[in-house]
Inositol polyphosphate multikinase
Amino acid sequence: MLKVPEHQVAGHLAIDGKLGPLVDDSGRFYKPLQGDGRGNKELAFYESFSSDTRVPDHIRKYFPVCYGSQLLEASNGSGLLHHLVLQDIVSSHRNPSIMDIKIGSRTWYPEASDNYIQKCLEKDRRTTTVSLGFRIAGLQLYEGKESGYWRPGRKEVQSFTVYNVRSILRRFVSSNSSIGNENSDCSFAPSIYGGSAGILEQLLELKAWFEDQTIYHFHSCSLLILFDKESVSKGSASVPEIKLIDFAHVVEGKGVIDHNFLGGLCSLIKFVSEVLSDSKESSIKDCVESEKPGICTDNGNCQ
Amino acid sequence: MLKVPEHQVAGHLAIDGKLGPLVDDSGRFYKPLQGDGRGNKELAFYESFSSDTRVPDHIRKYFPVCYGSQLLEASNGSGLLHHLVLQDIVSSHRNPSIMDIKIGSRTWYPEASDNYIQKCLEKDRRTTTVSLGFRIAGLQLYEGKESGYWRPGRKEVQSFTVYNVRSILRRFVSSNSSIGNENSDCSFAPSIYGGSAGILEQLLELKAWFEDQTIYHFHSCSLLILFDKESVSKGSASVPEIKLIDFAHVVEGKGVIDHNFLGGLCSLIKFVSEVLSDSKESSIKDCVESEKPGICTDNGNCQ
């Protein structure tokens, strides 16, 4: 009953005889515990996190539910292997558009070895991690029944510049995404990024927690943005989601805030809010140009 | 009329025939333009900053006024040298307690050379820069007429740990600072860190700007905290001050917020607000223990 996840946009894929995560039909995601200690560190994080009463409920919803670990046949045929059993956060979406954004202007942590730090630093400098405080680690964009998904390859993703990131954050919420970056209409920005349940409000809620919490430092952790473009187009009340994933490099905060994650999060917030305010401005312009005697509503429509 | 600044707590000192800044009696500070281009970069920053209309007035007050540059006899006897002419921000204080805090979890910038980056990174890892997002670069603490100033030496400052930083932020606003770190009473915390014109409010005002501004990235820049302990003790209305200094490594923001500075600033804010809330808690305890039928006021006194 286990299969390769259809909508995995980053990380190791369980294809071509390789080791990777699996999913079942009941909404669970099985992530193999990596042998170098990372897997156990991630399991330990989930155990500590799920029982930590200092984490408020409105923050807990940004993390996948963890159901412990389980011995399973590994996807690479190497036999039984411990897997972390998590909520499959994609399973509730039909045609999910997903962005995996690794947060922080460094992916290494002070306690790591010199070799590990140099390796991470090199990649952080090569990508937008150092300059932006985050990098896109993978994405898929549902473009419609005919075109299917746009999912750039790993090499393309790793070469994204600041300019590309800005374009993709626009293209991600555009109805004409397949036409090309320059002409993105950002018509879904008000309903995906904006609004009281939108991505921006969720990012701000996370930010408020990160300004205060000194329990964990989330190195090399990803923030997923997920939504269903089709249900948005049809005006149904599908809520865009944010989830944090990948906790193999979480360390204790020891009374200090996670300023590395927080800085990157604030940078992402600035980018998202710019897309949103640009889209509002252009709909005001559209209203004016169409000579409708109206005001633009919050979701960018003319009244 | 030029002399060596009495209250310089970090940077090159103009003593023993060395090159360093000078001050005069009219409240001006003369900083020699370093020959490796840094001096000119700092001058260029001040010129760009002072004419940039995007910088709001309530933020401008956190920067020293710049009066251009001037040829002066250098302090090391090497002859005439261009000096940056700045407001001497210490001159308005009689017995200033000063802390120089270098903000950011990295002091290098992406465009720098590999050698420079490695040199900075090493120091950032050796100090609290990486772990805290800031490091104390120097300080002096006025302890009273008899004891004068406590000013730890450069080596001591460079070896400050997270624990030391937390102690010093308490000791900085204590009336019994000379007794030792453990017993700091933090009795000045409500009037220095707290209140509507206090350090915490000023830090929050700066933070709001850094969440939005994408003009400059302030690498290796310092935030000074200054106040007169004597006037606070006497209850006079001396306002604690924040100034940003050292702009030789400022680069263009290119539409991205300075997430490195912002993250460190948020970390400092958390530390300062913890000292403040601890001091409030202990004065409530004092009120209760003294059985005064009162409430604690915002400045930590019993009513």
User: Anything to note?
Assistant: Residues 4 and 301 of chain A are 40 Å apart (CA to CA). The radius of gyration of chain A is 20 Å. Residues 259-289 of chain A form the longest helix (31 residues). Residues 1-92 of chain A form one domain.
